[in-house]
Amino acid sequence: MALIVQKFGGTSVGDIARIKNVAKKVKAELDKKNQVIVVVSAMSGVTNQLVAYCNEVSSLTKDESLSEYDSIVATGEQITCGLLALELQSIGYKSRSFLGWQIPLTTDEVHSKARIEAIDGDYLRAQLKEYDVIVIAGFQGVNKKTNRVATLGRGGSDTSAVAIAAAVKADLCDIYTDVDGVYTTDPRITSKARKLNKVTYEEMLEMAYSGSKVLQTRSVAMAMAHNVRVRVLSSFAEASETSGTILVNNDEEIMERRVITGISYSKNDVQITLVKMPDHPGLSANIFGALAAKEVNVDMIVQNISADGKSVDITFTIGKDEIERAKLAIESVKGEVKYEKLLVNEDIAKISVIGVGMISHSGVAHTMFKTLADKGINLLLISTSEIKISVLIGKEYGELAVRVLHDAYGLDK
Ligand code: ADP
Ligand code: ASP
Ligand code: MG
């Protein structure tokens, strides 16, 4: 008997027929005499609608507005976990739903993208003695200090599922979604995308971080830290031992190694440039300290010193939904950071090529730059890690860049 956490995303619970389909997937595991904990997202589109309502009444820049935002956007999952528990009852199981605070799944105070602090795994295991199957609302927890509802950032149900799997020491965390696994790139961008049977945690972390939203970045980091076995698979296909994509520890588990494993694409970044600042030690610390204090995540950073060495420009990228808070943060250090202009460029796309094979192969960057240059695509920013190269380009070239790079690295073969 294995203990399995099954997570179902928005499309998988998108209407009543699909919730009934999910109940069948749960039943299949119970029939195999496995113990099951289910984590669900809101019906697809619901969270977006709730976020849109919030944006209509608030700029959401203050902490107190973000905790209200959380109590609103968390409601989508309350509906689906209740409906699934009800359906499971209808087909003969003893089942109940749990909201984050009822477990409790406690978080820190960063509303709208709170981090999980603790989950009472013993309590959940005890519930499995009471019930045939329990259903948990993903994406939500409770702020430990204030007792208010907190959410884990968009796509956060993945992280709920992995964290719960870690807390109850589950044998497997199955992430059911609308694609049958992790692909070499988003299959919506090119039909040449190929399903990967295995991907390393490290690669998946970089892919998720740079825009492959099939898994939330934090869920991968959590799986890596707690050694949770994670599989991504479709809720619309028949599951078998070989279906989906499994996250693995290292390269050696992947026999057929390529230089590049995947290409990620993000349209959610903005580029901010602070122009002509008098240079002094501590300038960057001032800027990025203020951004960190407002919980703004910064991705790429480039600093340019003028030819005479007196002034600098700093360019960095952040998430689109953080522009207002970033502006407030920078405004708050205007006394020390005397920039002439603040430029915001939203018309950008970030393309990243990822692969552990990069460590032992040269020429990966050259292939990327040459391929893009041949299409007349200009690079605005470049950043690299051991297993990733990211470039910022004009938004209009995003999908084209993914397709030509996919071909250039032979990912379809
Ligand atoms: P869910 O609602 O189940 O959490 P998401 O929409 O969050 O589903 O994530 C699944 C989507 O991720 C897919 O429909 C696909 O378009 C997108 N995606 C982006 N990159 C990839 C990739 N490399 N492999 C698979 N899917 C990807
Ligand atoms: N419903 C939430 C969202 O749309 C959480 C999730 O789907 O994982 O972001
Ligand atoms: Mg998701």
List bound small molecules. adenosine-5'-diphosphate, aspartic acid, magnesium ion
- The number of E-state strands comes to 20
Could you estimate the helical fraction of the residues in percent?
Answer: 25-40%
**Mean pLDDT rating:** 95
> SS-based structural class?
alpha/beta
Poorly predicted parts: none
| Content of β-strand | 25-35%
Major sheet characteristics: 8 strands, mixed
> In what order do the strands lie side by side in the largest sheet?
3-6-2-1-9-11-12-10
Count of helices? 12
What radius of gyration results from the CA coordinates?
22 Å
Shape: globular
What is the first-to-last residue Cα distance?
39 Å
What do these coordinates show?
Helix content is 33%, strand content 26%. It is α/β, with parallel strands linked by helices. It has helices at residues 16-31, 46-57, 63-73, 75-90, 121-130, 157-167, 201-209, 217-226, 283-293, 323-332, 364-374, 398-408; strands at residues 3-8, 35-40, 95-98, 105-107, 116-119, 133-137, 140-143, 149-151, 172-177, 198-200, 230-234, 245-248, 262-266, 269-278, 298-305, 311-319, 341-345, 348-354, 381-385, 388-394. The protein is globular, with a radius of gyration of 22 Å. The strands form four sheets. Strands 3-6-2-1-9-11-12-10 form an eight-stranded mixed beta sheet, sandwiched between helices. Aspartic acid binds next to helix 6.
